[in-house]
Design a protein that fits this description.
The complex is a heterodimer of chains A (382) and B (424).
Chain A: H1 15-29, H2 41-52, E1 54-61, H3 68-76, E2 100-108, E3 111-119, H4 134-152, E4 166-171, H5 180-189, E5 195-199, H6 207-223, H7 240-251, E6 255-256, E7 263-266, E8 269-276, E9 279-282, H8 291-301, H9 303-332, H10 350-381
Parallel strand pairs in A: 1-3, 1-4, 4-5, 5-6
Antiparallel strand pairs in A: 2-3, 7-8, 8-9
Helix pairs in contact in A: 8-9
Chain B: H1 2-7, H2 25-36, E1 38-45, H3 52-60, E2 77-87, E3 90-100, H4 112-131, E4 147-152, H5 161-170, E5 176-180, H6 188-204, H7 217-227, E6 232-233, E7 240-243, E8 246-253, E9 256-259, H8 268-278, H9 280-303, H10 317-410, H11 416-423
Parallel strand pairs in B: 1-3, 1-4, 4-5, 5-6
Antiparallel strand pairs in B: 2-3, 7-8, 8-9
Helix pairs in contact in B: 8-9
Classes of the chains: A alpha/beta (382), B alpha/beta (424).
Chain lengths: 382, 424
């Protein structure tokens, strides 16, 4: 009856689908009434974003041989790791961690994605792994710093966002839970990047063993106070089926994944899988592993949320901290010019202080004189 | 000289004209050995959770008690457990030693040390027993490690750096058989590549693993073919799965069942065959004849024993031992004297110090006493002075009063001013 329905522009699941639904609904209501037209905003946003294209930076971390490259290839259905050189055990005894970036441009139904995979070869491979996560935290900080500088600069037309939006951490399935190196790594990074822990090579665990391990890992994550990426709560007006799926997804973490670069024949179809003498593991079979859940979560529904959390939480924390450090430094050393335009400092500078002091003293003198005069007057009266 | 000549004569072989019966010697040996019982000691080295206990349970078809280890141990520890097993009238005293906390620390540079120390400690114990004057080797419980099973994690590419470093440290002390654990995570072609990679890394780094012996023709063929299949890819399980209409040991997955004893699925059967059924005795022999002898020689050389002296005379172990012992006792006495001397000196020093302190305290006490006396005197003086003043004042007061009284009595015509001035 002519009322404008408040339209939420931030549907994270299946945005396109819901959007057209609502659009039709609105159209129906407004046929003969005053049609303003801003209901097409979502459409406009959609069109512009397709034109602009998206970018996403994904970091993978874990010991060598956990299947990181295979999983990334399986996720994005492409081969990112051609001509890779693997080190021998001897070479790895004293290996340091390197940071290697692979960038690819992929396109699907007109939507362009610039995908950057940040690899961390050497993590956890040496005999002495003290602080082996330091190169990784340094890299993440560098990207934040770079963005901070760009954002505060004068010409902000073509800022490149190289910040790491998500880190997949691969936990080996051979143990009883998290190991000290896993705990230390996640604690060093949980306030800098969205961490998604995964159980790697899950085809060595029976369903019971998987459940036990997941419970144990979730317990230990709580116990050690590690802040892994949390799925946002779904809106209260979503349908029951959706809420149920969401609940299942959250209870399934950490995801137990299997990856494969090869295609095998299973049940009359050609699928990505691993061939064993006792059976075939299908990567995309949900009763075999959580690969599909991971893919859906990472790519199909939460990719943008991961970016948002990186921008709104991790980056902002970094920025605030950075500024605080700078202002405290500036207060100590007044001659340094601020390279970055920031709001006026809360601590007064020397000149103002001097002025204030002078004025204070004057005031005091005047007050004294006043008192004296009053006293004299009082005496004379007597 | 005549005697040695006689011994070095050419030996002759004689033909027997009937059955003497000494062909039963091996049987006699065996029955004696069986009566005594056998000893076998296995060391399992591998990271926490890799399946060491499960494999032992599967190998010996029993359940050895073992608690789940934590990942948060500060150092590597070795936990031995000894069990008595019996099969067809053969008694076996089996000791299984597990490494707890191996591979969990962030800095693993010292991880191999506890393992090395344990192996050496067992050699040391045996050596001590051997060197005793009254020894009983026939019922000595031999705890020397006969075989080290090194569990390699199936990470798909190659050995870990820790594996290489550890095996290199252990290969001259113990027989090593590397196994690929949890092999049901490696597909067949990955397994082939992994085995080749592991062996080539071991060879290129000079790590000597145990080779199944090929001199004995009875087992030469099977042993040499097994040597090419190392490292064995094993899967352990004590649970049963249904295959066809039988229950066999295995692991049940959504995509199929792995059968532990199926040679197409893994090398468990081969490991069991080689380790227990064919080469167990050889492992014991190698441990004693090669690894232990090496240890013994090094140890004795350290202690100063030689086989031949500087003047080409052969020392008897006894003489050298006595000489060493005397040296040691002399050294001990000297050290005792030193310590006693040191102790006496310390006592003297402390006594002197204490005396000094006593003197000091006395002096201070005297000083304080003197000060106190002086103060008292001063106070007395002051008091007297004050008293005098008071008396003087009183006297004046009295004098003034009497004067005033006199003045009032004497002249009543005195001008008022005078009083006023006086008052002022």
């Amino acid at each position: 009856d002519g009322q404008i329905i408040a339209y939420k522009t931030e549907h994270k699941y299946g945005m396109q689908h819901k959007h057209t639904e609502h659009l039709c609904l609105l159209f129906f209501v407004f046929q003969e009434k005053q049609y303003v037209g801003f209901a097409t905003l979502p459409n406009q946003v959609h069109r512009k974003s397709v034109k602009k294209g998206f970018d996403f930076t994904l970091m993978v971390a874990g010991e060598s041989g956990m299947g990181k490259s295979t999983l990334v290839n399986s996720l994005f259905l492409t081969d990112l790791y051609k001509d890779r050189k693997l080190l021998n055990a001897e070479e790895r005894i004293n290996q340091t961690v390197e940071i290697i970036k692979h960038t690819v441009d992929i396109e699907e139904k007109g939507v362009k994605l610039k995908l950057t995979i940040v690899d961390t070869p050497g993590f956890g491979d040496a005999v002495n792994n003290n602080e082996c996560w330091k190169p990784i935290t340094d890299y993440i900080d560098q990207q934040f710093e770079q963005y901070f500088r760009d954002e505060s600069g004068l010409n902000r037309k073509n800022i490149q966002d190289n910040r790491v939006h998500c880190c997949l951490y691969f936990i080996p399935p051979f143990g009883h839970g998290l190991r000290p190196v896993d705990v230390e790594f996640m604690k060093a990074l949980h306030e800098k990047v969205n961490i998604i822990p995964l159980i790697a090579k899950a085809d060595c665990l029976t369903p019971n063993e998987i459940k036990k391990l997941k419970d144990r890992i979730r317990e230990e994550i709580d116990k050690f106070g590690i802040k892994v990426y949390q799925f946002p709560e779904c809106d209260s007006d979503e349908d029951e089926e959706f809420k149920q799926l969401d609940k299942e997804l959250k209870e399934c973490t950490p995801f137990a994944v299997i990856g494969s670069n090869t295609v095998v024949e299973a049940r009359g179809q050609r699928v990505r899988g691993r061939l064993y003498p006792w059976g075939i593991v299908e990567v995309e079979n949900q009763s075999h592993c959580d690969f599909v859940k991971l893919r859906n979560m990472l790519i199909r529904s939460h990719m943008h949320d991961l970016k948002d959390v990186t921008c709104d939480v991790h980056y902002e924390n970094y920025r605030a901290q950075c500024i605080q450090e700078m202002t405290s430094k500036l207060a100590q050393d007044n001659r340094m010019e601020s390279p970055i335009p920031i709001l006026p400092l809360s601590t007064p500078d020397v000149d103002t202080e001097k002025l204030i002091k002078m004025k204070d003293e004057e005031l005091k003198r005047m007050q004294e004189m006043l008192n004296k005069m009053q006293q004299q007057m009082h005496d004379k009266e007597q | 000289k005549k005697f040695t000549d006689m011994i070095n004569e050419d030996k002759r072989t004689l033909e027997l004209s009937g059955h003497v019966g000494f062909d039963s010697l091996p049987d006699q040996l065996v029955s004696k050995a069986s009566a005594q019982g056998f000893c076998f000691n296995i060391l399992c080295v591998g990271e926490t959770g890799i399946g060491k206990s499960t494999l032992m349970n599967t190998l010996f078809n029993t359940t050895f008690e073992n608690e789940e280890a934590s990942h948060y141990e500060q150092k590597v520890e070795l936990r031995p457990h000894t069990y008595e097993l019996q099969e067809s009238n053969v008694n076996l005293k089996l000791t299984v030693v597990h490494t707890v906390g191996f591979g969990d620390q962030i800095n693993k540079e010292q991880s191999y040390k506890p393992i090395l120390e344990y192996i050496d400690a067992q050699f040391e114990k045996f050596l001590e027993e051997e060197l005793k004057i009254k020894r009983s080797l026939f019922n000595y419980h031999d705890t020397r490690i006969h075989i080290c099973l090194y569990f390699i994690a199936p990470n798909g590419h190659s050995l870990k750096s820790l594996d290489l470093v550890t095996m290199k440290k252990l290969d001259s002390k113990v027989n090593i058989i590397p196994v690929i654990a949890k092999a049901d995570t490696v597909s067949r072609n990955e397994l082939e590549k992994l085995k080749i990679k592991v062996m080539s890394e071991l060879v290129s780094n000079g790590v000597q693993i145990y080779q199944f012996p090929t001199e004995d023709e009875a087992v030469a063929e099977i042993n040499s073919s097994m040597n090419t299949l190392l490292p064995f890819a094993v899967v352990g399980s004590v649970d049963d799965v249904k295959v066809g209409n039988k229950m066999v040991k295995g692991r049940l997955y959504p995509w199929g069942s792995v059968e532990v004893e199926n040679e197409k699925h893994c090398d468990f059967v081969k490991l069991r065959e080689m380790l227990l059924r064919v080469n167990m005795e050889d492992l014991r022999e190698q441990t004693h004849a090669r690894h232990y002898e090496l240890y013994r020689r090094c140890k004795l050389e350290e202690m100063g024993f030689k086989d031949t002296g500087t003047d080409s005379q052969s020392f008897s172990l006894q003489q050298t031992y006595e000489a060493k012992r005397k040296e040691f006792l002399v050294e001990l006495q000297r050290k005792e004297e030193e310590m006693r001397q040191m102790f006496v000196n310390k006592v003297k020093e402390t006594e002197a110090e204490l005396k000094e302190k006593e003197k000091e305290l006395h002096e201070r006490f005297e000083q304080l006493k003197r000060m106190h006396q002086e103060e008292k005197k001063n106070l007395e003086e002051k008091r007297r002075e004050l008293e005098e003043e008071m008396n003087a004042f009183n006297r004046r007061k009295v004098a003034a009063e009497t004067l005033m009284g006199q003045a009032l009595q004497g002249c009543s015509q005195q001008p008022f001013k005078k009083d006023k001035d006086k008052k002022k």
